[in-house]
Design brief:
The protein has 405 residues and is α+β, with helices and mostly antiparallel strands. Helix content is 46%, strand content 14%. The strands form three sheets. A six-stranded antiparallel sheet has the order 9-6-7-8-5-10, with helices on both faces. It has a two-stranded antiparallel ribbon with strand order 1-4. A two-stranded antiparallel sheet has the order 2-3. The protein starts with a helix and ends with a strand.
């Protein structure tokens, strides 16, 4: 038994050494220096000194004997993070806070009446929950449109009605004001998510490494430190964009935005409300995240409407965002067939807040389901993906018009 334990220990140490080496090789110089410093500090920190994890707490009240704590289960993590995201309730329309009227509503990021209801089956649509274990059965992707799908607590009763009434109550017309309204929801949802994520990552830093040995604590803390850095940066980026959207509204300068309205000849089977910040253009050339920490990442929003009962999508961005302008010009220069492939693949690769018709999903071949699911789980806008017909070949209808606003 002792020999087996020794063999297991040697294998564990070899695996750990490789994981640490792999992590360090992936770091930039600043991160590498900080991580190596944390390793040294962790081995030398005294009981009453500041903890090596930089939490600001004394070591005895933070990581001392953390390896003896009970590990937190995946289920507990999901439950706590869900509670954090659901507990944030405030009106995003701070530019007009004098008119805020409680209660804070469970606002839809995607229109419930004209969009979600049009693609629902028995009051439900499908979505992918990006949790630790993915999904296994249909019940895991089915969500109710009344109380669950696309809901976030980001607008008061007044602003949820007033800001969006023209596109909620009337047939969508491609005007600058309507494009603003459709895309502002997407921007505010991203802002709301990033705000909650800041709180969530603090909880993770304080809890996820409980019950682990010091070496594992170091790895987890470094990964979470980098996540926290990225979350804070993302919040700064979307805050800047949100401010410009609100300036456009207050000053009536909707020409601060530029939009494309894409109209299909068939009803919806996919809907989305999200903002996206691609690092690469469609040729695979890196156009953002080029090393300047002061750079505010540029986004475009993608939102869903209907035109005469058919699927339509609004792509909007700030005109001052020249990187996005060039990116989208390259996309739309390729023609309608390419745009359909780019659009439908973006919905799964770039957006978490995406929904689909359950009959559409159930009619897909199993290999298609697997490929689309893997795309949704693995891709994001920090990597380049090839534009192909993976999704577009399964989406009914063709693009009948693309209007630039």
């Amino acid at each position: 038994m002792a020999a087996l334990n020794a063999q297991w220990r040697m294998k564990y140490m070899d695996d750990l050494s490789e994981r640490l080496s792999s992590m360090i090789r992936s770091f930039d110089e600043e991160t590498k220096t900080r991580f190596c410093h944390a390793i040294i500090q962790a081995s030398q920190t005294g009981r009453y000194q500041a903890c090596w994890c930089q939490s600001g707490k004394v070591y005895k009240d933070c990581h001392l004997e953390r390896d003896k704590h009970r590990k937190i289960s995946d289920g507990e993590v999901r439950k706590e993070l869900s509670k954090i995201f659901d507990s944030k309730k405030y009106c995003s329309a701070t530019f007009d806070d004098r008119n805020c009227k409680l209660p804070i509503k469970g606002a839809h990021t995607v229109q419930r009446g004209r969009v979600l209801s049009s693609m629902a089956k028995d009051g439900h649509v499908g979505t992918f929950y990006r949790n630790i274990n993915g999904f296994e059965q249909l019940r895991d992707i089915k969500t109710g449109i009344k109380k669950e799908a696309s809901i976030f607590y980001g607008f008061c009763e007044y602003h949820d009605t007033e800001l969006f009434k023209d596109i909620e109550l009337n047939e969508f017309i491609a005007t600058p004001e309507n494009c603003w309204a459709s895309s502002y929801r997407a921007v505010c949802h991203e802002y709301y998510q990033k705000s909650a994520a800041k709180k969530a990552v603090v909880w993770q830093l304080e809890n996820l490494d409980k019950g682990y040995e010091l070496s594992e604590q170091l790895i987890l803390q470094e990964k979470l430190f980098l996540l926290k850095r990225d979350v804070i940066k993302g919040f700064e980026d979307i805050s800047s964009i949100k401010n410009e959207y609100e300036r456009a509204k207050v000053q009536g300068e909707y020409d601060l935005l530029s939009s494309y309205v894409i109209v299909f000849d068939e009803p919806l089977c996919l809907s989305v409300s999200a903002t996206m910040s691609p690092y690469y253009n469609i040729s695979g050339v890196k156009v953002q995240n080029l090393g300047d920490p002061r750079y505010l990442f540029q986004h475009f929003s993608l939102s869903t409407v209907t035109v005469n009962g058919c699927a339509a999508y609004v792509v909007s961005y700030l005109k001052e965002h020249s990187v996005i302008e060039k990116y989208l010009e390259e996309v739309f220069e390729k023609g309608s067939e390419f745009v359909k492939s780019w659009l439908t693949k973006c919905i799964f690769a770039y957006a978490e807040n995406a929904f689909f018709n359950l009959d559409w999903w159930s009619n897909l071949r199993e290999d298609k389901k697997t490929s689309i699911y893997n795309l949704a789980m693995s891709e994001n806008y920090t990597v380049h993906f090839e534009i192909d017909d993976l999704v577009s070949s399964e989406v009914p209808g063709s693009i009948v018009s693309i209007e630039r606003i």
